[in-house]
Amino acid sequence: LLNSWQVTLVGADLVWPQSQGEGVSVCVIDTGYDSDPDSRHPDRPSKLDGGYNFAGRSPDYRDVSAHGTHVAGIVAAARNGVGSVGIAPLATVRMYQVFRIRSGSPVASDADIIAALDAALADGCRIINMSLGGGSDSDAEHTAIRKAYQSGVLIVAASGNSEDARHGGIATAQASYPGAYPECLTVGAVDKWSALADFSGTGSAVGLVAPG
Predict the structure, then answer these.
(1) Scanning 60, 155, 159, 198, which has the fewest C-beta atoms within 10 Å of its C-beta?
(2) Closest Cα partner for 175 from 150, 193, 158?
(3) Which of the four pLDDT bands, split at 50, 70 and 90, describes residue 201?
(4) In what order do the strands lie in the sheet with 25-30?
(5) Which among 195, 203, 196, 134 is positioned nearest to 171, based on CA atoms?
(6) Torsion-angle region of 32 (φ positive above 0: left; ψ -120 to 50: alpha; else: beta)
(7) Percent of the chain with pLDDT over 70
(8) CA–CA distance, 89 with 17 (Å, rounded to integer)
(9) pTM
(10) Main-chain dihedrals φ then ψ at residue 18, nearest 5 degrees
(11) In angstroms, what CA-CA distances link 211 with 5, 109, 116, 120, 123?
C-alpha cells in the first residue's frame, strides 16, 4: 500500500472489500484545502464535495497552512497508485475552513467553529473531524457539539499535541478542547510501531489511539 502504513496498522484494508466509505459524508473542520487544480499534491480525496471559509465568510477555502489538506488525505486520499491512500478512499469529503493567519500562526475562533459545526449538521455530514484544540472550555461550542452528537453524527477530535511527562513535558491531565467533551471520540497518536507519540495528549478523555 505504498506509504500507507497507517492503513494496515488500523486494519482498514481488511474491511475495504465490504466498504471504502461509499455514501458517507465526512466534514473536515480545519485550515482549509489546497484546491488549486495545478497543485501537485498526490493525496487528494477522489470525492471532494466543496467547502466554505467560515473564517473569511467566503467560498474561497484555500488552505492557510497545509494542515487541512493533509487531514483530508488521511481520511480519503484516492487509491491512485501515487503517494498514500486514505482510510476510507471512497468517502465524500467537505472542507470547512475555520482558521486564519494571525501574527504568523493559524488561529480559529469559537464562533467560526460553531458556524462550521452547524453547517456540517445541516449539510448531512455523518462524521465531523476536528484535528484542532485549545485549553479553554466553551459552553457555546459544547452546545453545538452536543447538538450534532444527539443527531447521530460521529465527532472525531484530536487529543492535542502535548508532551507526556515521561518525555520531559508537562503531564496532560485531559485532552484539549473539544476533545475533552464526552460527546467526542477523542484520538491520541501512535507511531508505526504502535508506541505512544511524544507529542500525543493523554488522559481519561482519550478514547483510542491511531497513527499520527
Answers:
(1) 60
(2) 158
(3) confident
(4) 48-53, 92-97, 25-30, 127-130, 154-158, 185-190, 206-211
(5) 203
(6) left
(7) 92
(8) 12
(9) 0.91
(10) -90, -40
(11) 9, 27, 26, 25, 29
Q: Which of 22-26, 148-152, 205-209 has the lowest mean pLDDT?
A: 205-209
Q: Which residue has the cell 480559529?
A: 108
Mind listing the pLDDT tens digit for each residue in 111-151? Answer: 999 999 999 999 999 999 999 988 889 999 999 999 999 99
